[in-house]
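Help wanted!
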Amino acid sequence: MLDTCLELDPQVALRPEPFGALAYHYGNRKLIFLKHPDVVSVVRRLDGTATLADTLRACDIDERRWPSFERALQSLTESAMLRVGAVR
Amino acid sequence: MSGGPTHLVEQLKGGLDAPICLTWELTYACNLECVHCLSSSGRRDPRELTTDEAKAVLDELHDLQVFYINIGGGEPMIRRDFFELLEYSIDRGIGVKFSTNGAFIDAEKARRLAAMDYLDIQISLDGTDALTNDAVRGDGSYATAIRAMEHLRDAGFGEFKISVVVTRHNVDQLDEFKALADSYGAQLRITRLRPSGRGADSWHELHPTNAQQRQIYEWLLEHGHDVLTGDSFFHLNAIGVETGSGPLPGLNMCGAGRVVCLIDPIGDVYACPFVIHDQFKAGSVRSGGGFTRVWKQSDLFTELREPQSAGACASCGAYDACQGGCMAAKFFVGIPLDGPDPECVGGHGEAAMLAASVEQRPRPMMDHSKPPRPAQQPERVPVSIGRR
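Answered by r_m:
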C-alpha cells in the first residue's frame, strides 16, 4: 500500500465537516465519513503521482501512525473512493 | 480511524454543516390518496414554490455541497417543470432520488429518465398483489406501479428501487417483495410506517404488531445488507440487546434537524419528512437568508442539536441501542418526546399511549386531502305520480 500511487476517484466529492469530511461517490452512491482531519488532508493531497508514503511524509504524519492510515486508505480504495493513479 | 461509530454518532447529533439527507416534497398534488400519506397530499397548494424559487433553492444546495436530494410529494411528476428541475439539479451536481407512484412513467418518459445520470427512482408499492397494495394506495395503483416498473426495465434504466412501507398486512410479503425486486433487477427499500399525515388516522390499524416488529428485525438481520431502509428501523435495535444479535446496519439515531430535514412544497422547512407540524417547522426557504440560514441558525434545529434527555427511557438498558426511537412517531400518538417509541419492542410504548389522552393527540397541520366525494346515492329515477 505504501508504494502505491493513489488518487481520489473523479466521481467523488469531499465536503468539509467539523469531524473531518464527508466523501460521496456519485457513481456508486456511497457516502463515507472521513473521521479525522488528518485523513482528509492526506486524501486531498493524493494526486496519483506520489506514493502513499511520500504523501504521508508530505503531510507530516508521524511514521508510527502510518499503519492506521494504510488501513483507512485501503478501505477507501475498496469502496472505490480512491483508485490507483494513472502512470504519467 | 480514530473513534468508533459511537463517536461518529455523537458528532452527527451535534449537526452537520449541511444535511446529508434532504427530502423535498415538490407538490402536494397527487393522483392517489394513500391512507398513510405522510404529507396528506391530494390537492396542489396554490402557494407552491415557482420554478425560479425552486431553482434558487437548488443553487443554495449546490453551494452547501448537498450531494443528493430525495424528491417526493404528492406525486412530483405532476409538476409541469418536473424534468426542468430534475435536469437543473443534476447539472448543479446534486444527484436526485425521486419517489413516484409511477402513473406518469410511460415508455417515452422511461427512456428519458434512463438517459440521465445521477438519478435514482423509487416506485412506491405496498403489496405484492393488487389486493394488499390497493387497500392502502387506492384502486388500480398496483397495476400502475407494475407498468412503470416494466417501462423502466424495458428502457434499460438499470437498478431502480421498489419502496415499501411495512404494514401489518404486507409484513409477511417481505420475501416476495425481495423476489419481485430481483426479478426487475431492482433494489428493495423498506421503511417504517409513521403516524404522520393521513397516517395519524390509519397507523393504529396498520402498524405492525409487536410480534411482527420482531419479524422485521429478524428479516433485516438476514437481508439488511441487500436492502435499503433509510435507517428507519433503529427502534428495533433494542431487540439486539436482548438477543445479543447486535444492531441493524445503518446509522442508529434520529437525524431530524441534524443530518436530515424536509422542504415542503411551499418552501417551509421541517425537521424531517414525518413531522409536518408547526412545532417542527424551522422556517421557510422564502425568508431572508433562505434555506441556508434555516439550516444553520434556526432555533428549532439548534435545539435539536443539543444533547437530548433520555427521559422515561433513562433507566432502560436498551436506550443506547434504540435511542428512544422516532420523535415523529411519539409526537403524533401523544407520547412526550422523551417518552418511549409507540412501537418500543419492550412494550413501554403501548403503556405510554394508553396514558396519553387521545383528544390531546396533535393533529397534522397541513391537510391537502381532496374533499370527500359525495357518497354515491342510489340512482333516482324521477317518477311522477299523479293523476291525469
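OP: Thanks! One thing I noticed: The first strand of chain A starts at residue 5 and ends at 8.
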